Amino acid sequence: MKRHSKDGHQIPAGLHANLSEGLPVCQKLRRRSTLVNEDGFFLGKMGFRKALRSGRLSAAEVELELRAQVEQFSELTGHLPQHMDGHQHVHVLPEVRDVFARVLSDYGIPFTRVPVEPGLRTCPWLTPPLQEFYMQVEEDAWGSVGVFRKHGIRWPSVYLGLTTMGKNMSLSSIKRAIDNALEASCPGSCGVLPQCDTPWGPGAGTRDCPITVELMVHPGYPSDPQQGGCGEGPDSFSQSLDRQHELDTLMDPKLLNFYRQEQIQLCAFKDL
Q1: pTM over cut 0.70
Q2: Helix (H) or strand (E) holding 85
């Protein structure tokens, strides 16, 4: 696995830090920790948030686990991640974001994700529970902007992906998301141009300030219920056909033609 990670396809890779599903990387935290349940597994997407709100989570243990994941990434790939964010957006949660920013700064990891998506509030196909969760993610994301800036961490101008996830991904939904990004311009700072201090920076989208957009995707294949996952088996999303649907959509020649027509350049964080 290590050899494959180092010598396989030269795909730009970042670290999607996990604090909510499966087992910790740090062996010490598997035995006894505020981050895990009595079986040694993380507390889950909502369980982690509930424990955080009640003040039961140890920031020191969060930092210990994040550092362990960075070290393992480096061991497996032979280099540090160029960008790092959080599974289920845990990296922008209060208390976590300060620790997360400090870890990125200490390792010199330059880029992260700020999940504020233009057009999210008016998206017609999101269910009310999902809309409510995403609104909370957006609020937490805005709260993380100052913390990330203080540590010199950058992020793309616009984030997309909540309205185009899984079965909701299509050529039309991606077009809609990109149109919203162009209208909104430069959220929160882009972290790219320091003068973009207003929520929507002036001049974004011009030759002097090109827009950089992160599109969150989950391409893949349905997981075998008996295999994979992070210790407790794959979750329902991984077992569904949604990941296959995303893969098929992203490889559709019509989407690639759209990118060419609109002069959208596909790139990686390292290209920024």
Answers
A1: yes
A2: strand 84-86
